[in-house]
Amino acid sequence: MSDRADVVLETRGLVKHFRSKVGAVRAVDGVDLHLRRGETLGVVGESGCGKSTLAKLLVGLEKPTAGEIGVRGQNMAALTGGALRRARRHIQMVLQDPYTSLNPRMTVGDIVGEPFAIHPDVVPRRGRLRAVQDLLDTVGLSPDHANRYPHQFSGGQRQRIGIARALALKPEIIVCDEPVSALDVSIQAQVINLLEQLQDEFGLSYVFIAHDLSVVRHISDRVAVMYLGKIVEIGDDREIYEQPTHPYTQALLSAVPVPDPRLRGRRDQIVLSGDVPSPADPPSGCRFRTRCWKAREVCAEQEPALQIRDRSPHPSACHFAEVRDVLHSG
Amino acid sequence: MTEIRAETDVLPGVDRAAPLLEVTDLHVEFRTRYGVAHAVNGVNFRVSPGETLAILGESGCGKSVTAQAVMGILDSPPGHVTGGEVRYRGLDLLPLPEEQRRRVRANRIAMIFQDALSALNPVYTVGFQLGELFRVHRGMSRRDARKRAVELLDQVQIPLAKARIGDYPHQFSGGMRQRVMIAMALALDPEVLIADEPTTALDVTVQAQIMGLLAEQQRQRNMGLILITHDMGVVADVADRIAVMYAGKVVEEAPVHDIYARPAHPYTRALLESIPRLDHKGGQLNVIRGLPPALDAIPAGCPFHPRCDYAQDACRHDPPPPYAVAPGRTARCHFWREVVGDE
Question: Is A308 helix (H, G, I), strand (E, B) or coil?
């Protein structure tokens, strides 16, 4: 591990099970990760892998079934009431859908200023209007927009409002859950650039959750790949994209279409069979084994730990982890 | 099967030597109480057997409305086709009475949608819905129709097709539902398949399966495929030609390799520069300033001029015609030479 003083967020054995008719849905099932100051940790995975539940756990919107979330030396998972509320100030969230995550009956000024009502000591009452106007200016909106309602804005502008709200309490960490996936490409770039600029300006640390592997590569320093509630591989941008060692990461990368027709038919294509199994009844041993071309008996018996291996210089949860560059071969 | 097929071949005006599907100067508007939205403003394109044409654009550019007008499934009112032609093998479909139009649909031109769950009927089994096509359009018996339905589910690679024929749409996963919808679209052997964002709601690993299936079926059947999408990665993987739409117009049309290597329209160029890449980590993304225009207030001249780095006075007044950039290649930009020339 690197210098601990640098770590602003850390989870240990984080678990969230939901009760349902078919038994416990193991949405997040033992996640260990850490986030350093000023860093962006990308989390990728397909629907149902638990990435959004992880986001909610990190900001305290869900209570974990087990495990710890360390923020500023406190275990947020054990806090309640006022102490939890105070801890949450340091870790804010930007949500996916700018159309449903803003209250249509509140003005933009009230939406962006609402965090001040919950944490009245951050900005004195008399300074709040000014603070809201500054926030709007920071995210590239006009301060006059404070009196308007969300429906008067486009999708990209609404996402800016959501970002302004997340910045209001001057957090150290922002968890972004699919912040650009509802936006058109030309608008997506505007919001990504804004997030990068704000990170530099305020020294923010991001957990950036998305299903789009290209967007995640662009913005992240390190990337965690999730499958059925677990991290299967984690490493820096080059390790995950150029030297992936987990078969799931390799399959995922090979399935992403690249906007370059010259690569057609020349890329290493791994087409997985079937769908992701139900998190209520995950396979024994390695959870990916039912779709994996490398699976053997040991995979059903022993769950592979997320660790550095003989042929994986970065942590990988596969008994047969081995580097395969799926983006540049062929 | 062939004798029943003949029913539509006698459609007067169908000429087997004419282009498979040709859309000329199509105009569609939506009349609402707030005003008239000009969704499609003179769209031209053509598809040949075995060819994949991608219609690429962002939300509100008119790509889905164009598809609906071609299929004859536009919500009307408020939608109205106000001009143009949609010729299938030389026969203009727009003036046809609904009964004849219905026979062309599914038989000749079929369509699949982004959201299979709302495109399939939730209260009938998948087998019933597939079988219905054969019973109504081909006059098959219940038993034969069911047999054909199982064959089709097999063709779209649904495991245990025979057992799943009695299942309802909600019992299938997202990817499997998309396969069911593809099976329905292919049931009557159409010559043209329109796929409107067929994989947008799916995960990438499932998207790869579905795109592979579509490509395989297209090859086997020598179908014309119109792929409507916003995803420039998917387009690069499968399209032969691309039509880029903006504010209800095709602003650039070209073979796939040309458009990615040397875009001729500033909008295409800006789009390509604004997407992050999977295969290398780039610097800051290029941004297209501003927003696409509202369809009831499209700017005069070139609709892209308020957001364009190349815009000059002429762009504010004169709408650019489709300039011939090369054989089979057009761009609606007065300054396409500069755009193509820029590195």
Answer: strand
Q: Are residues A170 and A256 in the same domain?
A: no
Instruction: Give pLDDT tens digits for B1-56.
Output: 444 454 445 677 788 889 999 999 999 999 988 889 999 999 999 999 999 999 99
Minimum-distance CB partner of A192 among B256, B285, B292: B285
State how far residue B72 is from chain A, nearest Cα, in angstroms.
Answer: 27
Report the distance separating Cα B20 and Cα A67, nearest Å.
62
For residue A207, give the 3-state DSSP assignment. Answer: strand
Among candidate residues A87, A46, A44, the one with its CA nearest the CA of residue A68: A87
**A215, A287: one domain:** no
Do A184 and A264 lie in one domain? The reply is no
Distances (CA, A) of B326 to A199, B235, B323, B337: 45, 21, 9, 11
Burial-class residue B243 by CB neighbours within 10 Å (0-12, 13-18, 19+). buried
pLDDT at A279: 86
* Three-state secondary structure call for residue B80: strand
Q: What spatial distance separates the first Cα and last Cα of chain A, rounded to whole Å?
A: 36
3 state SS of A271: coil
Give the integer Cα–Cα distance in Å for A45 and B72. Answer: 39
CA separation (Å) from B117 to A1, B172, B203? 47, 9, 16
> A262: which 2 tokens?
């010259």
Q: Please determine, for the modelled complex, whether the ipTM score is greater than 0.90.
A: no
- Tell me how long chain B is: 343
Cβ distance of B287 and A47 shorter than 8 Å? no
Q: Which helix (H) or strand (E) holds A128?
A: helix A128-138
Same domain for A179 and A281? Answer: no
Quickly list DSSP for B8-48. Answer: HHTSTT--TTS-SEEEEEEEEEEEETTEEEEEEEEEEEEE-
* Domain encompassing residue A305: 245-316
B271 to chain A, any CB pair closer than 8 A? The answer is yes
Inter-chain contact A259–B236, Cβ cutoff 8 Å?
Answer: yes
Supply B319's token pair.
């709408």
Residue of B nearest to A329 (CA): B279
Q: Which residue of A has its CA nearest to B267?
A: A186
Tell me if residue B229 falls in helix, strand or coil: strand
B297 to chain A, any CB pair closer than 8 A? The answer is: no
Could you report the per-residue pLDDT of A17-74, keeping only the tens digit for each? 999 887 889 999 999 999 999 999 999 998 889 999 999 999 999 999 999 999 988 8
A298 and A160 part of one domain: no
Q: Are residues A60 and A205 in the same domain?
A: yes
How many CA atoms within 13 Å lie on the side-chain side of B328? Answer: 12
Helix axes B204-221, A247-255, angle to 10 degrees: 50
The H-assigned helical ranges of A139-270 are: 155-167, 185-202, 213-219, 237-242, 247-255
Rounded to 5°, the CA angle B309-B315-B319 comes to 130
Alpha carbon distance B75, B69 (integer Å)? 9
d(CA B271, CA B35): 30
The domain tally of chain A equals 2
Which residue among A204, A220, A236 closes a domain? Answer: A220
Residue carrying structure tokens 């941004």: B287
3-class SS of residue B283: coil
CB contact under 8 A, A186 and B204: no
Instruction: Report how far residue A323's alpha carbon sits from residue A268's, in angstroms, rounded to the nearest whole number.
Output: 13
Amino acid at A15: V
